[in-house]
């Protein structure tokens, strides 16, 4: 398994590419902006037979390049928790004036279990927030969108957010993971579950 991280768009959202060699499958997680950069990064991976887009949630800074990336990489599936479907399709899902609503978005489907990753449902930042846990040779890596950050947690003041739900999701689904689990959030640098259990002031 190979992982590439790109900081994209005006608010530095993290897009990740995960290559699962055995299945010749490339996952693009949260392509929020800069579609050409994402496609160029994908072309640097060993040849893959299939590309899929995985969305941790549907805020515009995480979905802005979905349409273009899906078209250029001939993406076979775009996966999103159905509870975020309304946000995904909303013309008001924008951050004016820097991020307009996403256009030409393809349809989505709920996550399906294909053995490459486990879906952890973590509502709170949005109703359909998800974290994606990949395992490779005993190594665990978690892509958690805007649910958990290094030293912080996601905001809940946007429509559909709920503070108590967010904290309960983190404590129920994320903190029980092994402490060495590497966490790749939607913004900022990576961390581990152990570091956040020990030092995150919002989780004490």
What do these coordinates show?
The chain has a single domain, classed as Metallo-beta-lactamase, Chain A. A hairpin with a 4-residue loop joins strand 1 (2-8) and strand 2 (13-20). The radius of gyration is 16 Å and the shape is globular. The mean pLDDT is 96. The chain is of the alpha/beta class and 204 residues long. Helix 1 (35-43) runs parallel beside helix 3 (66-72). It is built from 6 helices and 12 strands. The chain has helices at residues 35-43, 60-63, 66-72, 85-89, 163-174, 193-199, and strands at residues 2-8, 13-20, 25-29, 50-54, 77-79, 117-121, 130-136, 139-145, 148-149, 152-153, 182-185, 191-192.
Helix fraction, binned, reads 10-25%
Query: What is the distance, rounded to the nearest whole angstrom, between the alpha carbons of the first and last residues?
Result: 33 Å
CATH class, please? Alpha Beta
Structural classification: alpha/beta
CATH superfamily: Ribonuclease Z/Hydroxyacylglutathione hydrolase-like
- Regions with little confidence, pLDDT below 50 for 5+ residues: none
Count up the helices.
6
CATH-derived architecture: 4-Layer Sandwich
What is the chain-wise order of helices and strands? EEEHEHHEHEEEEEHEEH
Q: What number is the mean pLDDT?
A: 96
Question: What is the CATH topology?
Answer: Metallo-beta-lactamase, Chain A
Question: What coarse outline follows from CA principal-axis ratios?
Answer: globular
Main sheet specs: 5 strands, mixed
């Amino acid at each position: 398994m190979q992982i590439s991280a790109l900081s994209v768009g005006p608010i530095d959202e993290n897009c990740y590419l995960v290559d699962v060699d055995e299945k010749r499958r490339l996952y693009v997680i949260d392509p929020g902006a800069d579609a050409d950069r994402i496609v160029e990064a994908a072309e640097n991976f060993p040849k893959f037979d299939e590309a899929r887009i995985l969305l941790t949630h549907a805020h515009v800074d995480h979905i802005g390049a979905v349409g273009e990336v899906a078209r250029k990489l001939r993406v076979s599936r775009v996966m999103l928790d159905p509870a975020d479907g309304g946000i995904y399709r909303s013309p008001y899902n924008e951050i004016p004036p820097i991020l307009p609503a996403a256009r030409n978005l393809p349809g989505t489907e709920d996550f399906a279990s294909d053995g490459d990753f486990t879906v952890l449902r973590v509502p709170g930042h949005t109703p359909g927030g998800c974290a994606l846990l990949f395992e490779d040779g005993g190594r665990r890596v978690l892509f958690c969108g805007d649910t958990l950050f290094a030293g912080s947690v996601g905001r809940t003041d946007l429509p559909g957010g709920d503070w108590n739900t967010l904290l309960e999701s983190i404590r129920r689904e994320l903190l029980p993971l092994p402490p060495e689990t590497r966490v790749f959030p939607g913004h900022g640098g990576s961390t581990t579950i152990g570091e956040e259990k020990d030092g995150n002031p919002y989780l004490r």
